[in-house]
Amino acid sequence: MYGQLQANSKVEACFWQPGEAAGKMMRVAGNIEFVDDPELKKKVLEDRPFLKEFGLTFDHPGLIIFRIAKGEAYFWTMATNFEPKKFIKFGD
């Protein structure tokens, strides 16, 4: 997946909150940027100790962090399914 993201940085992610009907979703689309911050990597390992079971350390080349730095997002529910999307732009 890392190689694919290097070749094409455009992604879309979906976050789902269960609830009535189909719940609520937030879809985020944009371009990623890789983050090479040793302190952030230490924090990731602290917050997700199961990653250490895979042999990952803050300086392991397999621990890759990225963020969606620029793009747009919108919320979706079954109730708003047929309404026009209200995009929220973020980044530059």
Provide the descriptors you would attach to this structure in a database record.
2 helices, 92 residues, Split_barrel_FMN-bd, Pnp Oxidase, Chain A, Pyridoxamine 5'-phosphate oxidase, 4-stranded antiparallel beta sheet, 4 strands, alpha+beta
Outline the fold blueprint.
Layout: H1 2-7, E1 10-17, E2 24-35, H2 38-47, E3 65-77, E4 88-90
What report would you give on this structure?
With 92 residues, the chain is of the alpha+beta class. Helices cover 17% and strands 39% of the residues. A four-stranded antiparallel sheet has the order 1-2-3-4, with no helix packed on it. This is Pyridoxamine 5'-phosphate oxidase.
Q: TL;DR of this structure?
A:
With 92 residues, the chain is α+β, with helices and mostly antiparallel strands. The chain has 2 helices and 4 strands, in the order αββαββ.
By secondary-structure content and strand pairing, the structural class works out as alpha+beta
Main pleated-sheet profile: 4 strands, antiparallel
| Amino- and carboxy-terminal Cα gap | 26 Å
CATH topology: Pnp Oxidase, Chain A
Instruction: Output the radius of gyration.
Output: 17 Å
Give the number of domains: 1
* Residues in helix, %: 10-25%
Shape: extended
Relative strand content:
35-45%
Strand segment tally: 4
Q: Which CATH top level class fits?
A: Mainly Beta
Low-confidence stretches: none
Rounded mean pLDDT score = 93
Can you name the CATH architecture?
Answer: Roll
Number of helices: 2
Order of helices and strands: HEEHEE
Cross-sheet strand order for the largest sheet? 1-2-3-4
CATH superfamily: Electron Transport, Fmn-binding Protein, Chain A
